[in-house]
Amino acid sequence: MKLQQTLIIASVLSLLALATVLTLNKSDKLFLREINPDTPCLDLSVSGNSLIGENICNQPMRFVVAIYTPDGFIRDETSCLKKGEKLPIAVKGSTIRTSQLEC
Question: In its keyword annotation, does this UniProt entry include Membrane (predicted)?
């Protein structure tokens, strides 16, 4: 039983490791660490205190974003964006994990 639980936990952790992790620092620089670039349709830019995501693919895409703020708040957002549509994703100091699917 413990071996099965260990395998399940290891599988979940490996799936989480496939996410793209983004962090904004206080100087407005975007630090991107890509373990697996699984969101090629999501173009990111910084605007003021916010991180803005834009769909750059021709087809509508659904972006799933898990946001971890410095105070421990966790929020999941799912947004279906057409090409060129933008969405504010997070504020400075947040850590973000993203994934994408077709709408």
Answer: yes
Reduced 3-state DSSP string for the chain: CHHHHHHHHHHHHHHHHCCEEEEECCCCCEEEEECCCCCCCEEEEEECCEEEEEECCCCCEEEEEEEECCCCCEEEEEEEECCCCEEEEEECCCEEEEEEEEC
Q: Domain count of the chain? A: 1
Give residue 40's domain range.
2-102
Quick check: 43 pLDDT over 60? yes
> Could you tell me the pTM of the whole model?
0.56
Read off the CATH number of the domain in which 56 is found: 2.60.40
